[in-house]
Specification:
By secondary structure, the protein is α+β, with helices and mostly antiparallel strands. The protein folds into five domains: 50 residues; 168 residues, Immunoglobulin-like; 96 residues, Orthogonal Bundle (Neutral Protease, domain 2); 158 residues, Neutral Protease, domain 2, CATH 1.10.390.10; 74 residues, PDZ domain (Pdz3 Domain). The chain has 18 helices and 27 strands.
Length: 616
């Protein structure tokens, strides 16, 4: 299989030799073998010219947006085969779940010279077009778009939005070929926002150097508000859809501060321009990173005092991904396989480190106080250490199994899994302090991120393995981390928080508390989850049980009142409905133990603390 970069290399090599041969034709053509060689080189040159000329262009229109259908036209040029297999991606990079985008595709047709071509569907996301070596094949299809998330596509009477993986089919052998995309907005819509470069002053036509670039640039289409600001020497455009309580002038200043803080970690910003697409909705769905853009979906009233810092933290998180995962990446995450899961054990670095920095950078940018940041760190530790799944699933397995567990939570997930976001952020925090302490304040985690960026992205132009990640940490810190990785990355041991935070003079108080917690989460009186090692778990309470009464009293989320005068060992009589059958369980009361971690800032700031939080 040839790709355009290979084809171009062969083309120019052959061109050079062909010129040399033709220039010295009389000398080189003294015998038959030389003439055969010349003809072979000429044929190879022609083949590569033809191959490198192959391309795919797309058109996207939306004639009836209220029906939620995008209409897509895909033109395959100079790919003259007996048949062409076109495929729809099954997932979107950055969101590790097979979403089966082909489920929303319908009315697939292909024509050549206005003649319908035969199409056979081979599997869930592959269509075979019997093109009979046609010079130009036009494939048309519709995409139903009514899932408002940062990972998918949405179209209604107010606007259109899509990610390329849920919109554009591809031909595997042409994935490295350039393409153009023409957008035809609905008749009353005037704006198209995307990070792809525009090819002309008029209309909405954009270019992409290959398929990866094409689908890594979401589109916002409609009459949305737009504004811009410059930060870190980069022009940033913002496409703002939906009403909200935002203040544009304030956003320009504050988002610029976040951009500057992110860029300072790596020392340079690789983009000439960047696009924020922001959807202001009733229910937000977070963000998704792209090479030089992001989509953020937030509650429309999030820009007030209580929610605004959360919004800025989301901005920092997705912008930090501009480096960490889009350029600094595991070797398994690119080039992408769009037909299958792309497994890696390093999402704790990609998402966990980013989660650490999205809080740390708000301190550096002036939005958090030191005490606020320490409370954030304390909250993460309390969440992780009191989740039963923390002792069941390692960080490496949490990363690897994201495809089947992280994005498909069940009622038992808290008992069996841990978030590579939250625990990965704690690992980043621990490593940062360990590096600063070991190097006597000359290095920190920023230096590791810089090294990964310079060495693997800029110098070697590739991702890194899990082993190389450990080697990078060891190279910068001077630490030997075999035991660290065995205990905390592939193992499930608890960090020695007192020692590590102690490097910065930060005191960690661990309060061991006991309570007779029932151990369930409820929706009304219906059990939605049961926490492991609690009285409900040990006593046989099931998810979907409807709790009717406790000890003869009607249950109305009044568990603590009913057991107020009880002690461990006393029996609780639970009347419940399970599958509409009434039954009684007798459950011994027991205490559940949990640890509460309190982190407080030191009275005197030592050199490790000052380097860690970059304060005087």
């Amino acid at each position: 299989m040839f790709h355009s970069s290979i084809a171009k290399t062969i083309f120019f090599t052959n061109y050079y030799w062909l010129l040399l041969l033709l220039t010295n034709f009389n000398t080189y053509c003294q015998n038959y073998n030389t003439m055969k060689f010349l003809l072979l080189m000429l044929n190879l040159l022609i083949f590569n010219v033809l191959l490198s000329a192959s391309s795919i262009n797309y058109e996207v229109s939306m004639s009836e947006p209220h029906t939620h259908y995008f209409e897509v036209k895909m033109t395959i040029i100079d790919y003259q085969k007996e048949y062409i297999d076109v495929q729809m991606p099954v997932w979107a990079p950055g969101s590790y779940l097979v979403r089966e985008f082909s489920k929303s595709v319908e009315a697939v047709e292909a024509v050549f010279n206005k003649k319908m071509l035969k199409i056979e569907k081979l599997n869930k996301n592959t269509w075979r077009i019997f093109s009979q070596k046609a010079k130009e094949v036009i494939v048309s299809y519709k995409v139903y778009a009514f899932e408002m998330s940062v990972r998918t596509s949405f179209l209604d009477a107010s606007h259109g939005y899509f990610n390329g993986t849920s919109m554009f089919m591809f031909v595997d052998e042409l994935r490295n070929q350039p393409s153009k995309v023409a957008i035809y907005p609905y008749k009353d819509w005037k704006k198209v926002s995307t990070a792809l470069p525009k090819t002309a002053d008029k209309g909405f036509v954009y270019s992409a150097t290959n398929y990866d670039i094409l689908v890594d640039a979401p589109f916002e289409i409609g009459n949305h508000l737009t504004f811009e600001f410059t930060a870190a020497g980069v022009l940033h455009n913002v496409a703002m859809y939906g009403e909200g309580n935002y203040n544009i002038e304030k956003l320009k200043i504050d988002m610029a501060k976040v951009v500057e803080a992110c860029t300072a970690v790596f020392g340079e910003n690789p983009n000439k321009n960047y696009l924020f697409i922001i959807h202001n909705l009733t229910v937000g769905s977070g963000g998704l990173e792209h090479l030089n853009s992001t989509t953020l979906q937030v509650n429309r009233w999030t820009y007030n005092e209580s929610g605004y810092k959360g919004f800025l933290s989301l901005v920092a998180h997705e912008y930090f991904h501009l480096w960490n995962v889009k350029r600094v990446r595991p070797i398994e995450l690119g080039p992408f396989d769009y037909n299958n899961e792309n497994y890696t054990t390093l999402l704790w670095v990609m998402e966990g480190f980013t989660s650490y920095y999205d809080e740390l950078l708000l301190l550096r940018a002036g939005f958090y106080s030191e005490d606020e940041l320490l409370r954030k760190f304390s909250g993460s530790i309390n969440y992780v250490e009191n989740q039963p799944g923390n002792k069941v699933q390692s960080l490496a397995h949490s990363s690897f199994d994201a495809w089947i567990k992280a994005y498909r939570p069940t009622e038992n997930s808290a008992n069996t899994t841990i978030s590579y976001y939250s625990k990965g952020g704690i690992v980043a925090n621990m490593l940062d302090l360990m590096i600063i302490n070991k190097t006597k304040g000359t290095k920190n985690l920023d230096d590791v991120m810089k090294y990964l960026y310079q060495e693997y992205y800029k110098k070697q132009n590739r991702g890194f393995s899990a082993k190389e990640m450990q080697q990078a940490l060891e190279k910068i810190s001077g630490l030997k981390l075999d035991d660290f990785f065995a205990n905390y990355i592939t193992g499930t041991q608890t960090f020695d928080y007192k020692t590590v935070f102690g490097y910065a003079g930060v005191d960690v108080v661990v309060l061991s508390e006991k309570s007779m917690s029932f151990g369930v989460s409820l929706s009304g009186n219906v059990v939605r989850s049961v926490k492991r090692n609690t009285m409900a778990y040990d006593g046989g309470i099931n998810v979907n049980d409807e709790i009717l009464a406790l000890n003869g009293f009607r249950f109305n989320d009044n568990f603590s009142e009913i057991i107020e005068d009880k002690k461990p060992g006393d029996v609780l009589e639970v009347l419940l409905s399970r599958d509409n059958l009434i039954q009684t369980l007798k459950i011994p009361l027991k205490e559940s133990e949990f640890n509460r971690y309190l982190i407080s800032s030191p009275k005197e700031k030592n050199s490790v603390y000052k380097k860690w939080l970059m304060v005087n």
